[in-house]
Specification:
There is one protein chain. 11% of the residues are buried. The longest helix has 20 residues, at 148-167. The chain has nine helices and no strands. Helix 3 crosses helix 9 and helix 4 packs across helix 6 (117-130). By secondary structure, the protein is mainly alpha-helical. It comes from Mycena metata.
Length: 239
């Protein structure tokens, strides 16, 4: 049997060997209730929030221009990707993501690696120039695998934003996760040093451990876009 990838092959084998659909253990209504709570902003802001400023931010965000200018001398948000960028991307995928499953478009990272760097760079540049991507990349479900091409493009965008933030020293020293050269165990090490220093000098050390529930989905997007724009982001990638 010829198949474009191992994932497609085993999906076909499963259909032939066990065609019976698996029973649904969770109802759609219960999923809806959970996801609405986790992903939708609160209808009523907590009293600790500045509701007036929140409303102002929403208005100001709608006034952001549809097309912005990249004011960075390095061209972080407008510079086209080239073959060198694609080579870096492919090295990253070989090291971290080669075994990832395909998305709705059934394309794999292995197939992406076969595309010449110049052609792949042209595809990514077209996506940013048009502000869009092939529809098959953008199919979302409650629980789904994203397109490998879309994830590869987001990696490239992430690198540009990260390089800009590092160059402008916008990332605080305490941010150790998802940062090259840093480790998440840096912070526990610092905490232990503080504890031992306080004990040795007879001081009381107060530590607050804050657990942010649903921190990512509850981020106010209009405020986030407005802050990024004011910090200097602009250009095709930002748009």
């Amino acid at each position: 049997m010829d198949a474009p990838s191992a994932g497609v092959f085993w999906n076909e084998i499963k259909k032939l060997a066990d065609p019976k659909p698996a029973p649904v253990s969770v109802s759609a209504d219960s999923l809806k209730d959970v996801f609405e709570t986790r992903l939708k902003p609160a209808e009523v802001l907590p009293t600790q929030f500045d509701s007036i400023q929140h409303d102002i931010n929403k208005i100001l965000c709608t006034l952001l221009p549809e097309e912005t200018e990249d004011s960075t001398p390095e061209g972080f948000f407008s510079r086209k990707w080239d073959a060198k960028d694609m080579g870096r991307l492919k090295d990253h995928l070989r090291k971290h993501s080669l075994d990832s499953s395909s998305g709705e478009d059934q394309t794999t990272y292995a197939e992406l690696l076969e595309i010449p760097n110049e052609d792949l760079a042209h595809l990514c540049n077209q996506c940013t120039a048009l502000g869009d991507a092939p529809t098959i990349w953008l199919i979302y479900r409650l629980i789904a695998l994203e397109s490998c091409f879309l994830k590869a493009l987001t990696i490239l965008i992430h690198w540009r934003i990260f390089d800009w933030a590092e160059a402008r020293r916008l990332i605080p020293p305490g941010q150790n996760g998802f940062r090259p050269g840093y480790r998440t165990n840096n912070n526990p090490f610092i905490l232990r040093c503080l504890k031992e220093w306080a004990r040795a000098h007879g001081y009381t050390l107060y530590v607050a451990c804050v657990d942010f529930t649903n921190a990512f989905p509850s981020t106010d997007q209009p405020t986030l876009w407005l802050k990024l724009f004011r910090m200097g982001m602009g250009g095709k990638i930002f748009d």
